[in-house]
Structure prediction request, 190 residues.
Amino acid sequence: MAIYIALLRGINVGGKNIIKMAELKSTFEQMGLLRVQTYIQSGNILFESNEDEESLRKRIESEIEAVFHISLAAILRTAEELNLIAAKCPFSAEEIAEAESMSDAECLYVAFLPKEPSKESLAKLEVYQTDNDQLRANGREVYLLYRHSILKSKLANNLTKLDVPATVRNWKTLSKLVALANAMADPARP
Prediction:
């Protein structure tokens, strides 16, 4: 049984695509997914399943559209993948500390993609890098470091250049999801 984390794109943002987490949890349970739990309102769901990623992704997207009438992208990662994503942050501690000293908001993010972007689409996004806004791509993830604010970043505003859906989580949320997934994986937990 694998532990999965579903990262839903574009729900409960700016008063649009509102889904209550209790209803989302219930929907996942009705789909036969096990040990379902949600984290904050931005569409982070942890659960267990024996299904493969692609089947689960299609089933989750279809069920959300049927139940909530919202068409969205569900990006899935296993607990093991999420641990590797956190462990392989390509920015140094010094780079992160410098960015944090220049900003009063979160500065480190990860964009999760359903598939690896093409080199051409990644090149289209890279042109928006500056000394203040940087990216490092690694497979199906793009790590983003903002020295001022994600809200005013041309890099953040052009993630669509990747030509694949992306859902972004800050490092604090990623770290919490890793901790929750690891707690689920602990055999001592009931």
In short: The domain at 86-169 is CATH 3.30.70 (Alpha-Beta Plaits). The chain has seven helices and eight strands. The chain has two domains: 2-83+179-185, 86-169. The longest strand covers residues 2-8.
